[in-house]
Write a structure and sequence with these properties.
The complex is a heterodimer.
Chain A: E1 2-6, H1 10-22, E2 27-31, H2 34-41, E3 48-51, H3 60-69, E4 78-82, H4 87-96, E5 100-103, H5 108-119
Parallel strand pairs in A: 1-2, 1-3, 3-4, 4-5
Helix pairs in contact in A: 2-3
Chain B: H1 3-21, E1 26-27, E2 41-49, E3 52-60, H2 62-73, H3 84-107, E4 112-113, E5 117-121, E6 133-141, E7 144-154
Antiparallel strand pairs in B: 1-6, 2-3, 2-4, 2-5, 3-7, 6-7
Helix pairs in contact in B: 1-3
The chains are: A alpha/beta, B alpha+beta.
Chain lengths: 121, 158
């Protein structure tokens, strides 16, 4: 299972990688913002994307919109990990194509459930 | 200050420490200090704005900040190498974000929050010139004190 993590916080990227490693996932690529994330996606060789919302250069929402707009990447499952957890935020994220939502702070169990849920769709 | 604010901030702080720092913290007596001089040396702030506006600030000594950083990253304190500002900023971001979410659930208000700002230094005070409500919540993490401060201004109803 190949993951792409897009987050401007190196701390949060490390926390997510540590969490994925605990869950048995080892193949992880990182990007510091949405634009870098699109570069890393390249030919679409990623099975699941985990992205932050608030980032410089290109926000998570803009990033997901671009992912969904490409015929190569449009079907890749996307999990959004963010503190933006108000109802309006979640509606906006789902509208642009986010498959599911992890609210910070989170536990490994929550991350496992969300990953399994988006992969089973 | 409304007790609900402090209850939600306290719960948010404990949850973030338990799930992301892997440390339990205990809360001491809250104070309404008008100026805070951190024993040392790391201050992270996240502002929020809406019908209610204000600031969440986290104060720690350098040693505590280093331990928090190491715990978040899953490394030893001696291995921390430049990651401290980002980690403490993310800590404040999660506390403020969780506080915002909790307050939205109880009050229906949705606030925007800022990106975190982190200051590392010594011998400085933080003071606010405008008329604000200010409460400092002291938490104990093992031998270390971590102060979480809430500053609130409410917009007058028109």
């Amino acid at each position: 299972m190949r993951f792409l993590i897009v987050d401007d916080s190196s701390t949060m990227r490390r926390i997510i990688i540590n969490t994925l490693n605990k869950l048995g996932y080892e193949d992880v690529t990182e990007a510091g913002n949405g634009r870098e994330g699109l570069d890393r996606l390249g030919g679409g060789a990623v099975d699941i994307i985990i992205t932050d919302w608030n980032m410089p250069e290109m926000t998570g929402i803009e990033f997901v919109r671009s992912v969904r707009g490409s015929s190569v990447t449009k079907d890749i499952p996307v999990l959004m990990v963010t503190t933006n957890a108000a109802k309006d935020d979640i509606v906006e994220a789902l509208k642009v194509g986010v498959n599911s939502y992890v609210v910070k702070p989170f536990t490994p169990e929550t991350m496992r459930e969300k990953i399994e849920a988006v992969l089973s769709r | 200050m409304e007790p609900q604010f402090l209850t939600e901030l306290s719960d948010a702080t404990r949850e973030v420490f338990r799930t992301m720092v892997f440390r339990e913290v205990t809360e001491g007596a809250r104070t309404g200090r008008t100026a805070v001089q951190p024993g040392a040396n790391v201050v992270a702030t996240v502002a929020f704005a809406g019908k209610t506006s204000g600031l969440v600030a986290v104060y720690t000594a350098f040693e505590a900040a280093n331990e928090i950083t190491a715990a978040m990253l899953g490394i030893e304190p001696a291995e921390v190498d430049g990651e401290l500002p980002d980690a403490i900023g993310e800590l404040a971001n999660m506390i403020a974000g969780s506080f915002r979410t909790r307050m939205a659930a109880v009050s229906g208000e949705t606030w925007a929050i800022s990106v975190p700002t982190v200051i590392v230094g010594r011998d400085f005070y933080t003071k606010y010139v405008s008329d604000v409500q200010r409460v400092v919540c002291p938490f104990q993490m093992g031998p270390h004190e971590v102060l979480v401060e809430l500053i609130v201004t409410r917009r007058n109803e028109q």
